[in-house]
Description:
The protein is α+β, with helices and mostly antiparallel strands. The protein has helices spanning 13-23, 51-54, 57-61, 108-117, 128-137, 143-151, 196-201, 238-243, 255-269, 285-295, 323-328, 333-336, 352-363, 401-408, 418-425, 433-436; strands spanning 3-8, 31-37, 42-48, 67-73, 88-92, 95-105, 156-163, 168-172, 181-185, 188-192, 204-208, 214-218, 221-225, 249-250, 253-254, 276-279, 298-299, 303-305, 329-331, 340-345, 368-373, 412-415. Helix content is 28%, strand content 25%.
Amino acid sequence: MCGIFGIFGHPEAANMTYLGLYALQHRGQEGAGIVSSDGRNLYSHKDTGLVADIFTADVIERLPGFAAIGHVRYSTTGESLIQNVQPIMVNYARGGMAVAHNGNLVNAATVRERLERRGSIFQSDTDTEIIVHLIARSRASSLVDRIVEALREVRGAFSLVFLTETRMVGVRDPYGFRPLILGYLKGAHILASETCALDLIGAEFVRELEPGELVLIDREGIRSFKPFEEVPHTPCIFEFIYFARPDSFIFGRNVYEVRKDLGRSLAEEHPADADMVIPVPDSGVPAAIGYSQTLGLSYEMGLIRSHYVGRTFIEPKQSIRHFGVKLKLNPVKDLLKGKRIVVVDDSIVRGTTSRKIVSMLKRGGAREVHMRIASPPTCYPCFYGIDTPTRCELIASSHSIDEIARYLGTDSLGYLSIEGLMDAVGEGTYCKACFDGSYPVPFERSQEGDQMALFR
């Protein structure tokens, strides 16, 4: 997962992009970058860390121009190093170009090996750089044709924004795995991963790019192309469950309402005789509200989350039990004491964090802890842009629900069924390979052991 943003035709393009990335920070916290254009040159600044720390007023002043693209990084390929932070900017025979990518290419290793045999030299570990090399090698006459020719050689998930000195291009893969939306602000066209980025800057939501659609934006306006072969559309259902911000509108639905509906379906399938419902904040909140409303149970914030926890911290030399989880979450003991509680979360990956949460709640005084999960068991890794572990690390791939419940130490455990998930999401076909193992795009088998860890 990553977040991308682009704006064309605004006198404060870099500043607008900074704000857009700020709204998309939830999609990646490892690094961020912006490339701007003044019509003659491209200007770049990127670094590891958070958007607010990287882009000071002085930095924004050094990114002039009427157009800019930006990226917040969450790594699915490549380490968390400065050379892997996007947008990737290059100068080649036809001028300058920058690209920002949300997604994951499943044939990256094969294409990269072929390019290296032909003399290409790579500066990063990201699969996105492969696209840049393919474009540079293309002999097609127009920018659109070069991009299309390059993308026809790769497979997988890609929502992309490109910037040259005079044009911006947005493109979404034919399957539509990752969201990409079009906005408008006082004569400027905008591309962004989610509508929450438009809200912050007061821009108008125009529409979502269709799967397989490419848009070219320049001084003459915006033009749309559908250059790819039609395939079944399979947007990622986990965007609804976890990744997208609740106030965003993606895949034709409001994310908050979908998550409440997930909670309602969960309550119908797995009711509990309890005193109150509490969420695991923040992603479990809407589903917990839907669950509590359906069963008429009291909704309480029994776990308080610290919003000031960074990605690194210094652990005391004297061991503190469950230190990492306690940094982020703390129970409200007076509220929980002697109560039977239902705790609602969006998903379980390895189960280690959920186990610590259950233990924390019981030590906080809860008499019973019933865990409810607003998605089906995660049994398979994702290869389309979500950093899930290998299958052997996914607890649901090798344990029954009763076994997971015993491991967690919970009094009962209920997952939403796939049928309940689809009822809540509504009409449409989605990629749910992480639940059922049905992958829309074949991947290289070597990738099965290369997945990095989700929620470290």
